[in-house]
Design brief:
90 residues, mainly alpha, 4 helices
């Protein structure tokens, strides 16, 4: 499968934020020896933890639907797209 995967990450948060802020430990990389220092970095007050907290705050902003429910926000986007296409035809 690795030959076919072209993404820089498999973690949704990393993909949405656009940078690898959450370390990935996949298959043979998922070992206690590798997990322990990574967990220590996010459980302690470290630059990595602060970087992740800042990224998750950006993620909240990116994924925000404002004060509308996700379904209402999606409907607004669909209607705006339809209006734009209708006006382009005129």
């Amino acid at each position: 499968m690795r030959r076919w995967i072209t993404s820089s990450s498999v973690i949704l948060a990393n993909l949405v934020v656009g940078e690898n802020v959450v370390p990935e430990f996949i298959q043979e990389d998922c070992t206690p020896a590798k997990l322990m220092p990574a967990l220590h970095d996010v459980l302690s007050d470290t630059p990595l933890r602060r970087r992740q907290a800042e990224a998750f705050a950006r993620l909240d902003t990116i994924m925000s639907t404002g004060h509308k429910s996700p379904s209402v926000r999606a409907a607004d986007i669909v209607l705006a797209t339809l209006r734009t296409r209708s006006s382009e035809r005129l």
